[in-house]
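Objective 1b. Sequence-to-structure analysis of Tetratricopeptide repeat protein.
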Amino acid sequence: MRERTPEDNVIDYRAAEHLLEARDPRGAVKLLDPVITAHPENTAARLLRARAFFMSAQLRSAELEFQIVLEREPDNAFAHFALGRTLQRANRHQEAVRHFRLAAALDPNPEYMAKAAFDRKD
């Protein structure tokens, strides 16, 4: 078997994006695993894999990937929002609200603001 090239990683990343759009998150994860093995620092690939884990209801794996992204990019509003959705789906609502509020503080996106529930007392 030949060694993977940088082009292979780009092709697999783009194909994983298409699989996620086509609602095949498990296929996307399979394509992203070797990309992340070759480039563990690649935040975009990790974010895409986290989304794929979320879509396939692998909540613990999604949570871990979103946390890695946030360690590297603490100001990533989407990652906070997506982690909040992951925690909410895992019935960890108070933890979720914290990330929804961080997302809304970083980006006043209407969807983030609605989930932040600033008017509630938690």
